[in-house]
Here is the input.
Amino acid sequence: TAPLPAPADLPAPVINPNATIVLGKRYLRKGPDGRPLEDETGLFWRVALAIASQEANYGEERDVTATARQFYDLMTSYKFLPNSPTLMNAGTPLGQLAACFVLPVGDSMEEIFDAVKFAALIHKSGGGTGFSFSRLRAKHSRVGSTGGVASGPVSFMRIFNTATEQVKQGGTRRGANMGILRVDHPDIKEFITCKEHEHALDNFNISVGLTEAFMQAVDANRDYDLIDPRDGIATARQSAREIFELLVRKAWESGDPGIVFLDRINRDNPTPALGEIESTNPCGEQPLLPYEACNLGSINLALIFSPAAPDGVDWEELARIIRLSVRFLDNVIDASQYPLPIITEMVRKNRKIGLGVMGFADLLYRVRVPYDSPEALVLAERLMSFIQAEAQKASAALAAERGPFPAFDVSVFPAKGQGPLRNATTTTIAPTGTLSIIAGCSSGVEPLFALSFARHVMDGEKLVETNPYFRAALDAAGLSRPDIIAEVARKGSVAHMEEIPEALRRIFVTAMDIEPVWHLRMQAAFQKYTDNAVSKTVNLPNTATKEEIAGIYRMAFELGCKGVTVYRDGCKTAQVLCTGEAG
Ligand code: UDP
Here is the structure.
């Protein structure tokens, strides 16, 4: 059936110059000759209509066009955007709309190569995949069927990496993977150092799955057991400190591996009866069960600023956006076509969605609160607790209309006295690498990387971008002089610019001006009210020591984070890109 045409009076969205390039290159539907079949109005209408049409599944006597218009306005106001695969694929024959997947990797040739194939299908559709390789038998273990010896998790990861390399996602973006190994796997040392010499794992972010028992063994300087995944029998003892120090040294050198706290992630597993969580998606924000997928969406906090509100936040508008966004994301689950029947089955049992935020650093600029201050932590907690509570209310309201998620009865909620919910999780904080470019805001909950910088877009094109709120503050202070703007663009930060008043220097801080501990405190503040996890990098100066990283890891554990990624300025390798620059 032909899609409903866009209403004649539909206002065209305002598109910023970077968004024009990104949307044109990767998001607008193209015909066989490579020419676009739609403009930006067509793109957002295609998405709005495909997602609104799902309401008919529930016999909801709503006017699809009216709902589509609400969704269109929501997206083109840039107050909310769904994750990239939804923008790219909604209303198209491919129709795969989720960014995050986790696939199991079993300890047999068949299961390993099944996982390679499934990952290729997911990458083709624009999704990222996470795997735990912990079930694979250790290197040099016996292979019963051949009498030979096994090559171990790291060597199989190279096959996943190569497959990823060859499948450009949907012809648009490069696939991203997360590889996790439990700290008690016999090959843990090889895993921790696996990105050291070769580019053979460039399409992987890697994280070590830490357990509470391991963290206690580090504290007590005890040995812990390495365990054969095939029978659960301890094969060797290992000094916990030695592994912890190796982990810290590699992170200091290259940013890889990160760490995830598996016990904590599983304490927040809403449906333990359906299985144990062993991995997250590539950027770490979305823990999932094997074969589960999740679609994300982000609210742009920069645009809920209200100068009239006592605290600068328009809470009523925020509540409205949350309700509409939760409805949108729940519809995405039904609109999406998943690459495997078993994924469809898992997704529809739990109906997880991940509503999060972007533009937080911009909001702080607007309300004149420094990122590295107790006030900023208070605001972060108020915002996220509000979003979590309102998103749950919206999910409960949907449950009343459409029924709870099918696994609700076996979930942890009934025992907690929690009434029916439509979604097993509602909140996740994504990196928003591309979404933040489209919306023209700061990404996720990260501080700005620079107040002004030259962005290399493509084919040698360069765009100088200055943060609009900083620019306005300079204007108001009569300081928008070409020499000052040029110096900010060169330095990125005003921390050491005498010509800028102290009060402005305090507010307009950037990632590198912020002490690492504030990065972590901010991550923890958002994590406290997020069902899933928070994508965040703890930026460190080049001069940071290994002891500082060790301190950050321990503190992340104490503050209740689900994992942590550090990046020391100027260190060896870059992370797998999860930004609009990727691909
Ligand atoms: N992702 C991916 N490849 C990419 C970028 C992202 O597979 O090049 C997936 C990955 O699972 C990541 C998630 O999308 O964790 C969300 O990333 P982000 O918020 O940056 O995506 P956006 O929606 O802004 O494109």
Summary: Residues 22 and 438 are 8 Å apart (CA to CA). Confidence is low (pLDDT under 50) at residues 574-583. The radius of gyration is 24 Å. Residues 83-84, 99-100, 127-128, 173-174, 176, 281-283, 430-435, 578, 582-583 surround uridine-5'-diphosphate (CB under 6 Å).
